[in-house]
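step 3/5: co-fold with adenosine-5'-triphosphate
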Amino acid sequence: MTTIAIDNVSRWFGNVVAVNDVTMDIGPGVTGLLGPNGAGKSTLINMMGGFLAPSTGSVTLDGTPIWRNEQAYRHIGIVPEREAMYDFLTGREFVIANAELHGLPDPRAAARKALDTVEMDYAGSRKIATYSKGMRQRVKMASALVHEPSVLLLDEPFNGMDPRQRMQLMDLLRRMGAEGRTVLFSSHILEEVEQLAAHIEVIVAGRHAASGDFRKIRRLMTDRPHRYLVRSSDDRALAAALIADPSTTGIEVDASTGVDGGLHIQAVDFARFTELLPRVARDQGIRLLTVSPSDESLESVFSYLVAA
Ligand SMILES: Nc1ncnc2c1ncn2[C@@H]1O[C@H](COP(=O)(O)OP(=O)(O)OP(=O)(O)O)[C@@H](O)[C@H]1O
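step 4/5: write tokens
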């Protein structure tokens, strides 16, 4: 059982619409669920993991509804975002408890195997209270894997990990995807998703904004209009030379900080503009002092995708 189908799913909490009419299929391999904070990623993951019911629409695993379906839970492992754990247990006890909840015939053996998979066997007899963030994350992962699920859902798994732990987890998730499992992880960092996911689903403000491989998502983000702040030795001459080119649609002189305020430039053709600017400056003998993107926040990139 490996394919999760989300069909016209919405979920609201009081007046807050956390997920708004989302339709997507998540199949075998590694999928990244990308979106800024508050986009609805956790709500979606919780519905896929059977922790939450959709308000409308359906969430199914190979055609059977997941909510309140024990049979489906056997095939799903979920690593939640929240930090709170049973600190008074050792890592091993925590994983064994999960194995028992799943009714596995040999909980200790299953826990040993799962801890071994995440390379945490060495710290299994330490109390969770003494673990670093990355270690907690790995123990949560072991408990999600203890019943060897075919679907693994991870909510922001790389948060708080150092680069080495991040690489290890990426390797593990890659391996699981290559074995034919369905691995879905959420993140608000494009680079993280790019490195790992063969397929990316983008969600913004509860809505499904884009879907595809990282090249497609990158292209969508690069092709949007970009705003730059440019300061030079002669802003007015530079503005006059740039405005004639179709790669720019608007140039404003920033008067707020006096004569050297710089130019706010809106560029609609990223590749052409980044080639044009230094060439024009060189030809006109203008020195470029600052070239900085002024709307690179993830939110602005995402809102462009939603509007597209
Ligand atoms: N139990 C709840 N009660 C009320 N509002 C909620 C609840 N859970 C989520 N929300 C709201 O739904 C929206 C989506 O939240 P969600 O946690 O799914 O987003 P997210 O993309 O996972 O963000 P983050 O990365 O910050 O966790 C937010 O506005 C959030 O405040």
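step 5/5: annotate
The chain has eleven helices and 14 strands.
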